[in-house]
Amino acid sequence: DADAGTKRKVTPEQEPMKKRPKVADDVENDVEEDAGNSNESHRVCKFLVQNLEGRRGGHANSDFSVSLVVGKHGLFDLVLKVFEILRKARLTDDAHYSHLWSIVFDGTKYHNGWRECPGGPKSHIDEKDVRPLKNLQIQVGQKGRFQGESGTFDFVVKEVDGVPEQDGEYPKYSAVQTSFSSALSDDWISEPQKRACLQARDDWHDYYNNSSASSKRDRRTRQIVPCKPLASQWNTDELELLGLLMNAGYKFAKSWKMILQYALVDRPQSAASGQWYKLQKEGYRREYIGRGKSAAEMMLLVKRLAKARIETVPAPPSQAEILEERERMASRLQKLRMESLSDDSDYDDPIWG
């Protein structure tokens, strides 16, 4: 036994680590890290808000640029500012909390109004979680869409740079001035964009004429077999373009040449012509399209809508995607067949009847 006065011997492993004094290199690194964080938090993110439509069924007269500070604001602040624009333009009387809504950004969907609802969506966006921009890895080109009963709009990140103005208040917005005329012309699209759209049109033409570009279930053999693809149903956005041009007093031939062949790259001219004259006969389907706007205002809206559509030119499915979908369908049908033949299954599917 050691004497009470004997000092206990401490091994190197037991000795606590002493803080090493900072040297010049460490101080310089800390300064650079603080400067980086400061620059990150003070960057300005500019969103281009497009296709802004209010609850009353009208479109805004222009697109808008909304600026937020990355370190201070989130996607929720973008929504609040757009609602301010909607109310000033008299496109809605609602506030952001009047109805449920959702917003998709860079492939992730967030929901508002479900926080107090058990069993509802978990990805909330509201005053408690504004979805800060600094946590979203903001990059130029990222896109999003807002959908709700009060209004809808698309948005894209156009710029992430610069520093806030000393006397500026953020978030802030400004109308984007258009550079094209109100006449029926192709001044809304550049030559490289024309070439890209026409190339995409050729790709879609080849896709629709490929006898094995899609898949179906053969009624006789009950197997998945290749077939020619069918065009999708015409959606409201496509019909709105036709209705605006028609209500503005233009004919199909020139409308196709100047606008529609670029904005509707996945639609053959014959199909577009059929929809045009069908919509012309059924006037009740287009009587509210462009209501309250002059012919010049409707043409400017058509060009803005068309320009937004060509920012991401849709491409037909690749061969790998076609084969993957075919295998998925075959696997699903095989699973249904096994379930229908199982003794302990009460599955009853009319396709096997």
Helices and strands in order:
Blueprint: H1 24-41, E1 44-54, E2 63-69, H2 75-88, E3 101-105, E4 108-112, E5 143-148, E6 151-161, E7 172-176, H3 191-208, E8 214-217, E9 224-227, H4 236-247, H5 252-263, H6 269-281, H7 295-309, H8 319-341
Antiparallel strand pairs: 1-2, 1-6, 2-7, 3-4, 3-5, 5-6, 8-9
Helix pairs in contact: 4-6, 4-7, 5-6, 5-7
Characterization of this structure:
There is one protein chain. The protein has eight helices and nine strands. It is globular, with a radius of gyration of 29 Å. It has 353 residues and is of the alpha+beta class.
- Beta-strand content estimate: 15-25%
Global morphology: globular
Overall pLDDT metric:
85
**What is the β-strand count?**
9
Largest sheet report: 7 strands, antiparallel
- Give me the oligomer status: single chain
Question: What sequence of helices (H) and strands (E) makes up the elements?
Answer: HEEHEEEEEHEEHHHHH
Structural class comes to alpha+beta
Specify the helix fraction band: 25-40%
The spatial strand order of the largest sheet comes to 4-3-5-6-1-2-7
Radius of gyration: 29 Å
Low-confidence stretches: 1-7, 15-20, 27-38
Give a short summary of the structure:
With 353 residues, the protein is α+β, with helices and mostly antiparallel strands. It is built from eight helices and nine strands.
Notable traits:
9 strands; alpha+beta; single chain; 7-stranded antiparallel β-sheet; disordered N terminus; two-stranded antiparallel sheet; 353 residues; 16% strand
